[in-house]
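Input:
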Amino acid sequence: MSVDISAMMLAIFLPLFGAIAAFLLPRAAALIGLVALALTTGAVIWLAREVWQSGAVILPLGGWGAPLGIDLRADGLSVAMLALTSAVGLLVSVSALDALKGAGQSRQRQYFWPLWLLLLTGINGVYLSTDIFNLYVMIEVIALAAVGLTVLSGTRAAVQAGLEYMYASILGALLFLMGVGFVYLQLGRLDFAGLMDAEPTGALIAAVALMFVGLALKTALFPLHFWLPAAHANATAPASALLSGLVVKAALYIVLRLAQYMPFPSEALLTLVGMMGAGAVIWGGIQALRAERLKLLVAWSTVAQIGLIFVAFARAGELGLTESWKAAALLILAHGVAKAAMFLAAGRIKDEIGHDVIRDLDRSPIRPTLAQFTFALAAISLIGLPPSLGFIGKWALMEGAMASGYWHWVVVTMVGTLMSVAYFSRVFAGFLRFDRVRAPVGEHQGWALADAAPLTLAFAAIGLGLMAAPILSFLEIGYPFGVAP
Amino acid sequence: MTPDLIYGLTGIAVFGIGLVGALCVQERLRRVLALKLCSVGAGFVLVVGAWREPPEMPDPVPHALVITGIVVMVSATAVALALIRRLQTLEATDER
Amino acid sequence: MLDLIAAFFIASGTVFFVAGTVGLLRFPDIFCRLHALTKADGLGLALIALGVGLLAGTPGEIFRIALVWSALAVASATCSHLVARYALRSGMEGRDD
Amino acid sequence: MTDPLVIFDLLLALSIVALAVASLSVRDLFAMIVLFIVFGLLSALAWVRLSAPDVALAEAAIGTGVTGALLLKTLHHLRFVAGGQGLRAGSGGTSMAPAAPVPVPVPVGVILANAAFCGLITLGLAVAFLGAPSAGPGFDALVADAMPDSGVAHPVTGVLLNFRAYDTLMEVVVLLAAVVAVWQIERGLSDAPAPVMGEVWQGFARLALPAIVVIGTYLLWVGAEAPGGAFQGGAVLAAVGLLLLLTRAYVPRPAHRGIARGAFVLGTAAFALVALLVASGGRVAFEYPLEHAKTLILLIEGMVTLSIAVTLAALFHGREPVALPKGGRDDT
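Output:
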């Protein structure tokens, strides 16, 4: 009896079994975690090959098929997100080996791996799901595992932030669930295909609004961002990288998906979404300029970047729909890679210098040069300088906006870019100034193995920009962005 | 006045009450309870959607969904409460 | 005929419940309230169970109703005891709250 | 002539809403939890009225019973911690006031604005609800068609364990994630002493334990053809764990952690393995061969019930039993 295993099942079940094994055998957790990560990455590559060769793949679980059963579906967009998740996840895991090696961190080591693998199960599940109730369950898996990771360090600030995060997560998920209820009331089915071409009745508009607000709470869209900076800034470095690089993206992906299938909201509502995004860009920028600690600055820049992605959503008005969805997808990918690199680098800098107060970065005789270089590379992608992936995303956004005459969104993008230059410069200044060092300079910390993972991520954030064309054509496999042109 | 109408509006009212609580209440324990109220409200809407006039059997799928929702909610509640207890202990030791 | 007897039992059970509820709301302190509640609960539930049992068709249903009644009787007695004990220990005598 | 049941419905609905308001507005936290438990039980009653007995059972056992126990446990802990503080500060000793340090009070205006905002949302939802088709489209026909192939006779169990088994697996994963997170958050043997409850309570526990085991197993077994099933049965069995923990008949020890971990993952692992292994001979994952469907579903349900029972009891206990060095901070 041979078992037919599909790559999609593996992408979800391998991390799940890994989590179980890592929880059962705490001493071998790190090894199990790395093996599970590597195997999951293999499954994703296998899936990517399948999708590349034969287009979107569908797996009707239980053989029932939607709408009665639940289908898994992988198309270009989902595979790209899966690839982002496993690539970033693998590298963050490698650097977690180093970040959690301290003698007093045995508990963190023991719990990091099961929680992270459960998180991976949830994230991969989101990217393959085609059923809105299943999405609800998946975001709850993600929420619980993510809160567990947030409070890993066990400090009071982290637990406080974790509790706020938990409240926001539960409320967001419940709003989403209420939206699911309204979809069921109106349509009597829950699969994506059933949502397509539905008449926008009152119940469906309520459902869209509820789901959007719920997801906005989970992605921390301004003004619902209150929980994010504390949660991301107080977590340990690998957890911050996972939270900021991957967890937020899952909810963003759901917004992106639902926007394809749910009835089209009115232009005014879209403008409102864009305004919220613009508010996030401005407010996140201002707070990043005012932040006193490096990790807090990075966390606020996440708020700003997410706002930018929502601006891309909003610009997908009646005109240039496909283009701006692609821009949003590119920005999601770029932000995932670069922000993970940046949080890891910030963690490294904090570890080496002993603090992460931005004002005192230039007073330190210790200069973790490689981590600083990594930070700068990631910043280049986040600012959107060519040839990084962030540049391509912003370019696509502005090009589309100009083509369809939405000049105000171009202005917002520009302002956001300038602000990100400004707040990242605060950090660079600290890196590059030596005149305020009292002690003899010379304790430059050179290479460390721990820098390899973030550096790879940062180079990827830059280098992927050169491969934008293949990425874009891969994203289109299976027409995730609406009908075939 | 049919049961689905009455209980549907009840569910929405409970959801709204929970929402007010989740946004306005300061006490940590009470906020958890407010969120639980929201989830009961959402459960009402799904169960009402499943209801059919008596000779007909109700639709079982939303029932299964609500059961799932209840179990998910108790898990989330447990984590939130554990955080509250931990935070309380930390605050007590910090003040000591 | 059976219906009428059952209705009588259920109605008198309900009267006990109402009385118990009024007692819960009107009595001054926790012990009086417990007194009202337990009497009403014990007797009212028994009467209602009896009435429903008369209406029930199969022996299985009657058995389950009996099970419900006995489980509730034991649980409510224990709970009242615990409440009274706690109240006594924390010195709540005769306080009105 | 109105249907007498409508009066009942209206009264029940009104009391549910009133209890929801009351539980959020009552000052005392203990009263809040008690009101919430009443609220939950009445909601369960409403769901029985809407012919959803499975949901009512789950809500009564898990949504109200276990949640209520969790809330009470937390309140006990909070008051214990606050009591210790109060003694130290010499301010009234065993104050029963909630321990949460009251943060800066929010201005009334903000609260009113929030409430008005939520009211608007609620109003909008109500309008949308009234506009939605009543008794609209659903899965009725699809489920009815597929039931003979599901291996069970009760539609809700069929949906949970067969048609949407993937959701249910992930739901068990949520429980697993919760217990992992809770163990990560809290550790140590126990700080708040268990309340002393006396001989009557001990006797009750001795009497109730076997009965609860029987009821839980019955609920699990009957789930195949009547309301009941793994989650309800698991929650009832979890009550056994709660009783054992409360009577101190069982005290979690560091040495038991391995077994506990095994019990937590048992349901998830068995469910996932079965789901994967049935995928052979042209079948996909979760597609049970018809002749074994009932056996496999019962097997999964049994394992899941056991896991749920242990997990819920562990969530109630709420901390990983680790022996901590006396007086040392237990961070990291």
